[in-house]
Design goal:
- By secondary structure, the protein is an all-beta fold.
- The chain has one domain (17-329): Kelch-type beta propeller (Neuraminidase), CATH 2.120.10.80.
- The chain is 0% helix and 45% strand.
- It contains no helices and 30 strands.
- It has strands at residues 25-29, 41-45, 48-55, 63-71, 76-80, 92-96, 99-106, 112-120, 125-129, 141-145, 148-155, 159-167, 172-176, 188-192, 195-199, 202-203, 206-207, 211-215, 220-223, 247-251, 254-258, 261-262, 264-265, 269-273, 278-282, 294-297, 302-305, 308-309, 312-313, 317-321.
- It has a four-stranded antiparallel β-sheet with strand order 1-30-27-26, with no helix packed on it. Strands 2-3-4-5 form a four-stranded antiparallel β-sheet, with no helix packed on it.
- A hairpin with a 7-residue loop joins strand 3 (48-55) and strand 4.
- The relative contact order is 0.19.
Length: 330
């Protein structure tokens, strides 16, 4: 693991004894070949995960525009064609019909961005697409579902909750109904069975606990149970899920959310069951606690990569094995 430290900071692993009875086990795989970084963008296509851009924390290096492909089958990294837009961090990326998309973000000149690009893994080429029509922003949230891409919320100098859909076949954007609840930046999204889910984030210093799903067939948002202990029932007594800049992926029809920050960096990991709208805590992320990491998944395997904690920048990659935890694996 490559660490960049300017000041001495002690970072502890999350594999403490207090969660030995929780299911799941994190296994370290081949370290990321690129520079250690945080606040990159990521998307998944088949059995490949992609990391693009981000920030090393070094003003002399600046924001990044390199693209790297991770082969889940061979546990190997390959550098691909550089992203052609300005180097950036805090962008949004997603996948639609076998192609990757990235847009918005923040550049070295402190400009908020609204440009948008498509990556074709077959030809290893990028194509500029129609600009995102909302205000230039960063720390937005996005997802690809049912043949379209979606970007919304984030920060443009004010907190936002507007949402837009992108149709790749028409290369066009349409504003859709805004997400319900509060405005937010640094939210987390995932997609299960053609339904998109958005949770977490922050608005004016408040970590948001409302949780929403979007059905593209109806074009409507539906509020789900809060992700905090906010009810009089006992199902959420142990909930402590709220955070910003968390990372999530899906394995076998359930979602896993980990890392991020809420005053301090987090490593606790939560499993979401869409059939019951309930969360269960699983084994803590085994690497150093961190925020602004990325996630990718092929639907049956899920990975967390890169990120930061204080002045540390990470290039380690971890895969979650969602079976009964064995402390002998530590």
């Amino acid at each position: 693991m490559l660490l960049v430290a300017l000041l001495p900071v002690i970072i502890t692993s999350c594999s403490d004894d207090d969660d030995e009875d929780l299911i799941g086990n994190w296994v370290r795989v081949s370290d990321f070949d690129g520079l250690a970084r945080y606040d990159a963008a990521a998307f998944s296509i088949g059995n490949k995960g992609y990391i693009v851009g981000g920030y090393t924390g070094s003003p002399s290096i600046g924001r990044l525009s390199d693209l790297w492909e991770y082969d889940m089958d061979n546990d190997a990294w390959t550098q691909k064609a550089n992203f052609p837009g300005v180097p950036r961090n805090s962008a949004v990326a997603f996948t639609v019909d076998g192609k990757g998309y990235i847009g918005t973000g923040y550049d070295d000149n402190e400009n908020k961005l609204n440009d948008f690009y498509e990556y074709n893994p077959t030809t290893n080429t990028w194509t500029k697409k129609a600009d995102f029509p909302g205000s230039a922003r960063y720390a937005a949230v996005g997802f690809g579902v049912a043949g379209k891409g979606y970007i919304g919320a984030g920060y443009d100098g004010n907190y936002l909750k507007d949402f837009y859909s992108f149709d790749p076949s028409a290369n066009s954007w349409t504003q859709i109904v805004s997400i319900g609840g509060t405005k937010r930046m640094g939210a987390t999204s995932f997609v299960i069975d053609d339904i998109a889910y958005v949770c977490c984030g922050i608005n004016n210093g408040t970590y948001e606990d409302d949780f929403w799903k979007y059905n593209p067939s109806t074009g409507q948002w539906t509020q789900l149970r809060d992700i905090s202990d906010s009810s009089d029932e006992d199902y959420d007594d142990d909930y402590n899920i709220v955070r910003m800049y968390g990372s999530a992926f899906v394995i076998d029809g359930v979602a896993y959310l980990t890392c991020g920050e809420q005053g301090s960096v987090r490593g606790d990991t939560w499993k979401y069951y869409p059939s019951t709208d309930l969360w269960e805590q699983v084994h803590n992320f085994k690497g150093s606690t961190r925020t602004l990491s990325v996630a990718f998944s092929n639907g049956s395997r899920g990975f967390i990569a890169t990120g930061k904690s204080g002045t540390y920048r990470y290039d380690d990659i971890w895969e979650l094995h969602p079976y009964d935890y064995d402390p002998d694996d530590d």
